[in-house]
Write a structure and sequence with these properties.
By secondary structure, the chain is α/β, with parallel strands linked by helices. The chain has a domain of 208 residues: HAD superfamily/HAD-like (Rossmann fold, 3-Layer(aba) Sandwich), CATH 3.40.50. Helices cover 38% and strands 12% of the residues. Strands 7-6-3-8-9 form a 5-stranded parallel beta sheet, with helices on both faces.
Length: 315
Amino acid sequence: MMMDVFQIQGVRVNTHLSRHIVVQLLLGWGLVVAPGCASTSSSDTPDEGKPAAQQSSQAAPHDNLNATLWVQTSAEYRSLTRQAYAAARHQLDRALDDESRVAAPEQSSDTAADKPPAVVLDVDETVLDNSAYQASLIDQRESFSVESWNAWCRRAEADPIPGAVEFARYADRQDVTVFYVTNREHEVEAPTRDNLKRHGFPIDDERDVLMTKYERETWEGSKVPRRRSIARDFRITLLIGDSLGDFVSVPEGSSPEARRQIIDNHQKRWGRDWIVLPNPTYGDWESSLYNYDYQLPTGDKRQQKLDTLETPKAR
């Protein structure tokens, strides 16, 4: 077992991995190529100038490839989202029978019992599937940008997450107001509304149920002010999302350890008041691994991820 630090293609490798294992891992990422498979330089390749998807040379590595494919192709992903929404429906029924139940940390049961019920859902990767946008970034070998993201949102082409439409309609039939609290920016609220309506999500046109980032001065990244706004008039029976901030206030710059501690502090709420959906493609779970330094080069971000891996202890 190699116990020193070494580099392969500019990636510094941690002491706990054998050189053989690391080479196999990096082969999977496209960071190294097997003997006999080495590609020519970009200036010599016959695929130069072709769209990325049509190029036959060794694909450039992209950290989001497997995660995006899992969302788009795996039976397990669809099972998990339907399972989450089945649990949400069950817990909603229980909450409707018990007026003391409230899901939002910003609300107390003694002030909410007489208010009409509501559920609060995140939008992206909770009710709308944006894996096509992620796939386009991989295909074009690009990274996230606000400009490309907003352009995608304006297309209003995101598919519904499996199980989401059925749950939202069920809640609506129970006279539960469905709120969508999203960190999509206010400038793309109209196409987001159109996207939701096209798939049959209930939207109350007489009330602001789609709450976007920057819609009001105090509505920034944290969703706490928006939950408080809903809680003034409604009893929030369920929170549903894919990120920790969809449920509770998360201090800015929280480390992975601090985020896990927040989970432990609220362990009785998960699966009861709070329903979480899987999202392996992006989020603060990933950003926390490189200390939210979004300006870091991709290779440096990847190195910090490698350094975070927990590998078997050397014997």
